[in-house]
Design a protein that fits this description.
137 residues, elongated, 77% helix, mainly alpha
Length: 137
């Protein structure tokens, strides 16, 4: 009887650990997806230098669209702040947010900073080893 209870408990722990692993993996994939958008923005900025003024407007529009996409991928506007908080608990996620912040409109940047401030105790606790938050200045 003890073996049955122990094996049920172990299988529950394994299922929980597997679910947590999948969730963390999905988070890292989402961060990578947003980094790809940032690389596209960097490419657009490099290409802009080689184009005439009338083509730069089209490139600016494309850059704005990509920036908006990066902002949406951070999922700050969702009612559940869980995803953004998870992003900010990962070193690469914090660096991603700091890079995205430089591209956002003032309103979007305020939204990001407000989300950071709302969850600052948790984010600061997770950042003790990384010390990335200090670089957000």
């Amino acid at each position: 009887m003890i073996d049955i209870v122990a094996s049920e408990h172990d299988s529950e722990q394994e299922a929980s650990a597997s679910k947590e692993f999948r969730r963390h993996r999905q988070l890292l994939l989402s961060i990578e997806k947003t980094y790809r958008v940032l690389l596209e923005i960097d490419d657009i900025q490099k290409q802009e230098q080689n184009y005439a003024d009338h083509l730069k407007k089209a490139m600016d529009e494309k850059k704005k669209e990509k920036t908006e996409l990066a902002y949406r991928q951070l999922q700050i506007q969702n009612d559940t702040p869980d995803f953004f908080t998870q992003v900010m608990c990962v070193r690469k996620g914090k660096r991603l947010v700091s890079r995205v912040l430089t591209l956002l409109t003032a309103e979007q940047a305020i939204s990001v900073l407000s989300a950071i401030l709302r969850h600052l105790p948790l984010i600061a606790k997770k950042d003790q080893q990384d010390e990335v938050i200090e670089r957000l200045r």
